[in-house]
From TrEMBL:
It comes from the Bacteria. GO terms for cellular component: periplasmic space. The keyword Signal applies. Keywords: Periplasm, Signal, Transport. This is Uncharacterized protein. It is found in: Periplasm. Spermidine binds at residues 81, 164-167. Its main location: periplasm. GO terms for biological process: polyamine transport.
């Protein structure tokens, strides 16, 4: 009680108390299954800062939350193209490099990307691909292409697509021989028509696919490599991940601080922690996404280093595209997606 009375009498005490309070928590909005409970517990133990976690199923869902202006998010993990979108909309805080010493550990090939050339707003967290996962207990037929998923009568009512406008339209664009970044109205219409036809056979749209594959809710799913590999880890020998012969997408997910974040110091501490070598090794082993630090791959087991789902070969990588922000032409994708979801 005496401490409370004294605090009320001293000038500046309220401000200092608020700063201390701010440092005790940080709000992280992140993809599902993208940070292990062990890593969360380690950060909280080392710093005394509690991580409050919320999830989103697509970049567009994250953007909508932030645009509402009352999300309370401090740190988020948008994909490459969404970093550009959010920075253009003035929704991101500039990072303070002097508070992120582990930036020096990052492999230069993941820095200075076209969506943030000076890494003013973002630093890489993990990279993934998007393709097809199959539960071989439920479907033993061949799957080599997007057509084998989207136009396969044997999978009627037995497969899922990502609940993600750019990824799902991107798959249909690839199937039809086009770029995932096409802004040609005719090509996008063809992709839309492909998905409208496929929708009759789709069991669900879902962006978290681990459980639906393991629980045998679907026989196959369009999915991110990290989810497919986590599902395979839980069901050894049953889940196969395929990058279709037409290709797929490659994404770098990034750590950013949202404009007006209430806990900026804690946000920087979290980002620096997540870019430590110890944190990344845990992340790669548990999330099974691609590492962004220089020395991580060499620290993994030979089995993991040789896993082609985790580390695709050069020929496969050449077939992958990174989704790009299309500015005003994003509306072509958004309008098509609305029609697909509401038809």
């Amino acid at each position: 009680m005496a401490g409370l009375v004294l605090c009320g009498l001293l000038a500046g005490c309220t401000k200092k108390s608020a700063e201390v309070s701010e440092a005790k928590e940080v709000n992280l909005s992140i993809w599902g299954n993208y940070i292990s409970p062990e890593l969360q517990a380690q950060f909280e133990k080392e710093t005394g800062i509690k991580i409050n976690i919320s999830n989103y199923s697509s970049n567009e869902e994250l953007l909508a939350k932030v645009q509402m202006g009352s999300s309370g998010i401090d740190v988020a993990v948008p994909s490459d193209y969404m970093v550009e979108v959010m920075s253009k909309m003035n929704l991101l805080e500039a990072l303070k490099p002097d508070q992120i010493s582990n930036k020096t550990l990052i492999d230069p090939q993941f820095l200075k990307q076209n969506y943030d050339p000076e890494n003013k707003f973002s630093l890489p967290y993990i990279w993934t691909t998007a393709g097809i996962a199959v539960n071989r207990d439920l479907y033993k037929g061949p799957i080599k292409s997007w057509k084998d998923l989207l136009e396969n009568p044997q999978l009627k009512g037995k497969f899922a697509l990502l609940d993600d406008v750019r990824e799902t339209l991107g798959a249909a664009l690839k199937m039809n021989g086009f770029s995932v970044n096409s802004t040609n109205p005719e090509e996008i219409k063809k992709a839309k028509d492909t998905l409208l036809k496929a929708k009759k056979n789709v069991k669900m749209f879902a962006s978290d696919t681990i459980d639906i594959l393991n629980n045998k809710e679907v026989a196959a799913a369009q999915t991110y490599s990290s989810d497919a590999l986590q599902a395979a880890d839980k069901s050894p020998g049953k889940i196969e991940y395929i990058i279709p012969e037409e290709g797929g997408t490659f994404a770098i997910d990034n750590l950013v601080i949202i404009k007006g974040a209430k806990h900026p110091e804690a946000a920087h501490k979290l980002i620096n922690f997540l870019l430590s070598e110890q944190a990344e090794i845990n992340r790669v082993k548990t999330i099974l996404g691609g590492p962004v630090l220089k020395n991580t791959k060499a620290s993994l087991t030979k089995e993991m280093q040789n896993n082609r789902a985790l580390f695709p070969d050069e020929a496969t990588l050449k077939k992958l595209e990174r989704i790009q922000d299309q500015g005003e032409k994003n509306k072509l994708f958004e309008d098509s997606w609305t029609e697909i979801k509401t038809h």
